[in-house]
Amino acid sequence: MARYVVQELMGKVHKPFGNNAWLPGNLITSSFVVLGWGYLIYTGNISTLWPLFGTGNQLLATIALAVSTTFLINMGKAKYAWITAIPMCFVGVTTVTAGVLSIKNIFWPLTTKPGQVFTGYLDSVLMTIFIAGVVLVLFDAARRWYQVLHGAPVPQEAFGPPLTVTGEVKMGCC
């Protein structure tokens, strides 16, 4: 997931990175992410790395549940949205709380230990970025839910790219 996010962000700066099938972009962004995690492993230990890894995975689950809830609402099946919305709320609240507590109790105290100041700041910033990203996704999803439930039309792209007569996916570029 990290590679896709980095590649998408880099695609805003240099257009070819936005194409997930572009091999140089895949190699560069994969290397960037692997080197980043390698640095975290080299400079930290399991007590600093595990909270980042675990929180990242749980926040990804929160995003997946938000996307599933949005899909159900977009499809006109809002009465079933609670099936994904309740776990999304539970996982989201507990994981964001755990992330904030990790910053407060694990990462921030490292900023006062000689030799671990940079690691403490880096881990705190990374956790803050994780949390902020999920909060933004949840706010955008809630905005979409409100719009659709109050009569706004669902955009065509909510259902994926249009199909051709033969059933193949019609891509927008060619």
Using brief descriptors, characterize the structure shown.
5 helices; about 170 residues; 2 domains; flat; mainly alpha
Folded structure, characterized:
It contains 5 helices and no strands. It is an all-alpha fold and about 170 residues long. The protein has 2 domains: about 1-45; about 45-155. The longest helix has about 35 residues, at about 115-150. It starts with a helix and ends in a 25-residue tail after the last helix.
Bin the helical content: over 70%
Q: What is the CA–CA distance across the termini? A: 27 Å
Task: Output the radius of gyration.
Answer: 19 Å
Instruction: Write down the secondary-structure element order.
Output: HHHHH
Tally of structural domains: 2
Low-confidence stretches: none
The structure class reads mainly alpha
Break the fold down into its secondary structure elements and pairings.
Elements: H1 2-13, H2 23-43, H3 46-74, H4 82-110, H5 117-149
Helix pairs in contact: 1-2, 3-4, 3-5, 4-5
